Amino acid sequence: MVRMRTLRRAALAALVLAAAALPLGCAKRSNEIPVGVYGSLTGTTATFGISTKQGTELFVDNLNAAGGIGGTKIQTFVEDDRSLPEEAATAVTKLIDQNGVIAVLGEVASSRSMAAAPVCQQAGVPMISPSSTNPRVTELGDNIFRVCFIDPFQGQMIAKFAKNTLHFNRAAVLRDNKNDYSVGLANYFTQAYQALGGTVVIDDAYSEGDQDFKAQLTKIKAKNPQFIMVPGYYTEVGLIARQARELGITAPLLGGDGWVSEKLLEIAEHALDGSYFVNHFYEGDPNPLVQKFVADYQQRYNAKPDGLAALAYDAAGVLTAALQKLHDEDPKSFQALMGPRNDVQKAARAKLRDLIAATKDYPGVTGRITLDAKRNAVKPAVFIGIENRAYKYVATVEP
Ligand code: PHE
After folding, report:
1. I want to staple 40 with a disulfide (CB 3.0 to 4.6 A). Which of 3, 49, 164, 211 is the partner?
2. Cα dist. 211→173, 242, 368, 372 in Å?
3. Ligand 1 pocket residue status of 137, Cβ below 6 Å
4. pLDDT tens, residue by residue, 244-291
5. Does the global pTM surpass 0.85?
């Protein structure tokens, strides 16, 4: 008998312990709105995550300093996924289960957004990617949004620029086979370029993390293309450019937004002179909103904001605008976001989701943001050229 009771008591103690170890989010009550931010703060694309974090924090800190949302502040929780898709899924799981976040901002890389999106969708936690451009990202569920344009537009834009502006008829494509963004953009570019009458004389591949591209570049050189389309990320692009010049290839490189990084020209040095890529943002835009953002960013971080910082600033802005509406139209639901993780909060998150989906004409620093039925933004893109190891603005292209 005594033994039985001891056992029962032990079982009870174990239960109590287990309950105490339950995710914090389950019982957490706070007077701030918990928002998750995840990205590549380290690893092969560290500048993506760092710029994104800085853009997000600039927006949130300004908002909080100005009184938050009707007096309620936003509290951000930040996780580093080390540039790895598996870690992206782990990061959002932790943000949701342990930090109890009610919405998530991230990721940059489409492959990592696609790894994390199912976790957010399953938990009913809205996720806004600032900068993932592969169409499949937002197809993963009705809780998944983005505030940037998508790759079919970007691919077509590059194809038109190459064919109609530069009058190039022969393209080589060098894609990153391990990267959903790169594979998608290579395909959209090819379709559009061929439709315009251009020829892709060779289509070769590498894998993110590779350092030696001489074998592919030797084959490309033999086909004598007028340009090489490289829809990859900055580290590999910089190395590819250098090795192309070492092999005597003088054709320029063209690329997409994956080139955006303060490290690009550090790696490439002069090898990208004469090349072009796409960005989401132009810091010389005279729009006062843009100029205030650039000045604030520069003052705080002692650096110019890149396209990723700008998109992150806008993603935080779109989320905040939806939170503000919820606060104004349905204060009970707004309060529930700070309450325990129960059905009441779940319904509040669904309302927040609907308000994000209804985003219309949000005045962002990357352009006006209206989300369509597929939870994507339709926005202009910016062409940037490289001359003498410096960037020059070429054109803004409307969708
Ligand atoms: N669009 C890229 C992707 O989907 C990410 C990216 C956006 C990188 C903007 C740099 C600048 O993977």
Report:
1. 49
2. 18, 11, 39, 39
3. no
4. 999 999 999 999 999 999 999 999 999 999 999 999 999 999 999 999
5. yes
